[in-house]
Amino acid sequence: MLPELDGDDRYRAIASELLRSAPTDFVKARSRAVAQARADGDQQLAGRLRTLRKPTTAAYAINLYAHENAPRLAEFIELGRQARDKHLALTPAALREISDLRSTLVATLSAAVRDGAVAAGVPVGPTARDDIVTTLLAVLANDEAAQVAAAGLLLTPLQYSGLGFDGEVTNAGAGRTSAGARQRGTGTAPPRRTDDLGAAAARRRARADAQRAMDAAAEQLRAAEEEATQRGTELDAARLRVASAERDLRAATDAEQEAESAVRRATTQVATARERLLAAEREAHERR
Q: What is the pTM of this model?
């Protein structure tokens, strides 16, 4: 069992709340939770919370969705369980159909997960979008992964490998685990050498730098999207003005054409009247 599923209900409840906090607020929220546990005299809980890692964007998004849309996620998980139970008895054609169903389910739910994170003010970039999809595939494929997702305790994305609804689950970018679904940094780590610690610190700094760069890029993207939206609004207004002017021009053109037709009709009538007058004058002259 994953370590996140161990422990008492209080730890799981606090951890779940922290892991669905906005990534920018996670460290402060964790510090407050640790301080509260210490104030309550629960040093073991405080120590465990202190080591709780900040979730990736994909993990955060799924944790948030699990909290806000628990019934829908539970239905998704149940469909995966039923498919796993039945897949061995299915024909190849049925397996293809169920694989298509899996793709549809994951595509639909991953879009909802992304929308939930964006609505909460957290941008979801291409990497995070891919991680959401691979994690949801893992949730369909593995009971333990499903339990962690349903509890809102994901730390990192999971990766599924296999056919249909039957396969193994590993950390994205990590090696195969020995007991189904495992997440990075969730078990008890063996002692590391000083050079390992230095390399790990360098990797953390690199990740932090990359996170800051991604946050800056996301902010630029939001600004660009806002500017594009504003420009789009102005463009729509300009289009409405053009459409209105075109309608006025058509109306004026129609009126002009109608006036020209009236002039032509009047001219014809005048010419006809003149001809009749001349004929009448000739006839009168002849009678004299």
A: 0.56
